[in-house]
Each structure stands twice: as structure tokens, then as C-alpha cells.
Design a protein that fits this description.
The structure is a single chain. By secondary structure, the chain is α+β, with helices and mostly antiparallel strands. It has helices at residues 14-24, 33-41, 91-105, 119-127; strands at 5-8, 45-51, 58-67, 74-82, 110-115, 131-136, 147-152. The longest helix has 15 residues, at 91-105. It is globular and about 35 Å long. It starts with a strand and ends in a 9-residue tail after the last strand.
């Protein structure tokens, strides 16, 4: 098993995130660097980096937003990605766990979209307590791929921060 840590994504990490995004999501309008800069700056978002060791370059990233008023929050996964050479090593699970800890701290349900043909991601989400709630036709552009909307309800043991 590969050593890995999850910590906060920093502005210094964003060029690498944009590179990975272009590689992993080439057919579906990958986020440009400016998109990552905007997302990281938004107060309601939390972004995480996956690294082989402290200070090492990013090998994966993930982001979640906390929306709504206190006491009635909901969370939305904005992105999660792991570079191809690190996929299947538990990095996606580690990033997902970090995001779900944010949702649990706010006692919030979590929503996300995933390509209907992305079996590894769907398995990760289902193993994390998500279920399909609907389908968004032609969600991803320009490919026209459909997406499942998935939701993980509030965990019973979750509590407010």
C-alpha cells in the first residue's frame, strides 16, 4: 500500500490540479486554473489535496461546499480526482472520507453528480452511503454523457460544529 496524506489544498497546488483535470476530464469541459482559483477562494468550500508525503505535489484533489443556513445545511461534492498512477490505492476513499467529515460536522446530507458509465466512482460513492436519486440527461458537455445524481442522507451520529 502506498503512503498518502490528505491535507488542505493550497493556491500553490492549483496548477497541478488544472493539469490533472485536463488529463482526467478532457472530454467534459475540465476546469481551468481560474476555476480552481475561484473555488478555493469561496468561503463555503473546503478543498483537500492527496499527497504521497507532506509538501509533495498533489496526486489527487477533492472539494465540497457547505450550503444553506446554520441548522439546515446541505453539502455538495464539487469534484474528486486521483491521478491515474495512484488510482485504486485508496486515495479516492481518503479524499471522500475527508469531505464526508465536513458534511458530518454540519449534520448535512451530501449530493453529487457522477457519469453513469463511471463504475469505479459509483462503487466508491455507494460504499460511502450514497444512493442514486435521479438521472441528469446530457449533463456532461461537450460529450453529452448522462449523470446520476446521488445523495447520502445525514448520518445519525453527525453533529453541528
Amino acid at each position: 500500500m502506498r503512503a498518502m496524506i490528505v491535507d488542505a489544498l493550497t493556491p500553490r497546488d492549483l496548477p497541478r490540479c488544472a493539469e490533472l483535470e485536463a488529463e482526467l476530464f478532457a472530454g467534459d469541459s475540465p476546469w481551468p486554473l481560474t476555476g480552481f482559483v475561484s473555488e478555493l477562494a469561496a468561503a463555503h468550500n473546503r478543498y483537500f489535496a492527496l499527497r504521497d508525503e507532506a509538501g509533495a505535489p498533489v496526486t489527487g484533489y477533492a472539494g465540497i461546499s457547505v450550503l444553506g443556513p446554520p441548522g439546515d445545511h446541505e453539502c455538495e461534492v464539487h469534484t474528486i480526482a486521483v491521478e491515474p498512477g495512484h488510482q485504486g490505492t485508496g486515495g479516492g476513499r481518503a479524499l471522500m472520507d475527508a469531505m464526508l467529515a465536513v458534511a458530518d460536522a454540519h449534520a448535512a446530507p451530501v449530493f453529487l453528480e457522477v457519469r453513469t458509465d463511471n463504475a469505479p466512482a459509483i462503487a466508491l460513492y455507494e460504499n460511502s452511503g450514497f444512493a442514486v436519486a435521479g438521472v441528469r440527461r446530457n449533463y456532461y458537455q461537450p460529450s453529452g454523457a448522462d449523470a446520476f445524481t446521488m445523495v447520502r442522507p445525514v448520518r445519525e451520529e453527525a453533529g453541528n460544529p
